[in-house]
User: What shape does this take?
Amino acid sequence: MPVIITLDQVLQDRGLSGKDVAKRVGLSETQLSLIRSNKVRGIRFSTLARLCHVLECAPGELFGYSRDDDDMV
Assistant: This one.
């Protein structure tokens, strides 16, 4: 998949645990884990906004993109 989730790096840079962030964002640890492992097909903008608020970042810091024409169908 060309979209790369960089949430783990942001958490590490800020010295935060997934458990703490999930609680502050209002997600279950399982939901946050699924996002972190790129096993979700989408994310609500409201969830993204809460993540950015808690982590004091912009959406572009949580996601990257690697062009791979083979992934595009």
In short: The chain has four helices and two strands. Residues 45-55 form the longest helix (11 residues).
